[in-house]
Design a protein that fits this description.
The chain has no helices and 17 strands. Strands 6, 7, 8, 9, 10, 11, 12, 15, 16 and 17 form a ten-stranded mixed beta sheet that branches. A three-stranded antiparallel beta sheet has the order 1-4-5, with no helix packed on it. The chain has a two-stranded antiparallel sheet with strand order 2-3. A hairpin with a 5-residue loop joins strand 7 and strand 8. The chain is 0% helix and 64% strand. It has 196 residues and is an all-beta fold.
Length: 196
């Protein structure tokens, strides 16, 4: 059932993608490239007699299944993953590489990284380890950014959806001559199924 076009005041898209709206119909087209800006938000405003009488908001998650990550603005990589149903842990593997996100608290929400493992990020790529903590002057510091849990469905196949940023993230690399360390900027998005 469509609303009569005389009641449609405006259509607005906030976020990635394209919105084609004509009268009382709208079509959303996802972006061709992955974006950390998610969800997209479509708003339709209704008016009658010059007065706004309502709004409809639709959140559209433009996220492939798994955990998608990019480091220092490089190419996006997506890892197959899932979410634990008894603890707040999202994890993914690809070859020998691994990503893990964990948080304590009520979901959904925005969580700042912690020095402990209460809100934590870890990404292993070969001999390189990225984390939510970095070293400055021999002192561990907490990464800026946050973990955003946007949606948590029930266990048994529904999704956990969210995003994360670390600026900077810390990294260490084991080599034959010792361990080197540095920082990187990391952003990611995820949509993973909750296991039973």
């Amino acid at each position: 059932m469509l609303v009569d076009q005389k009641y449609i005041d405006s259509w607005t898209l906030i976020g990635p993608g394209k919105l084609d709206s004509r009268l009382n119909k709208g079509t959303y087209t996802a972006p061709t490239k992955l974006s950390a800006e998610t969800p997209a938000l479509v708003e339709v405003v209704f008016r009658t007699d010059g007065i706004v009488v309502g709004r409809v908001l639709a959140r559209i998650f433009v996220v492939p299944e798994g955990i998608s990550i990019r480091i220092d603005g490089g190419d996006w990589q997506t890892f197959d993953g899932d979410a634990n149903s008894t603890q707040n842990i999202v994890a993914a593997f690809k070859g020998g590489d691994y990503i893990s996100l964990g948080w304590k608290g009520r979901s959904p929400g925005t969580y700042a990284w912690t020095l402990s493992a209460d809100v934590a990020f870890s990404h292993t790529v070969g001999t390189m380890l990225y984390q939510h903590v970095y070293i400055q002057g021999n002192k561990p510091l907490i990464s800026g950014g946050s973990l955003i849990i946007a949606e948590v469905g029930p266990a048994g196949g529904d999704y956990v959806v969210g995003s994360f940023t670390l600026s900077p993230a810390g990294w260490t690399r084991a080599t034959s001559t010792g361990v080197t360390a540095g920082t990187a900027s990391i952003e990611g998005i995820f949509r993973v199924k909750r296991l039973r």
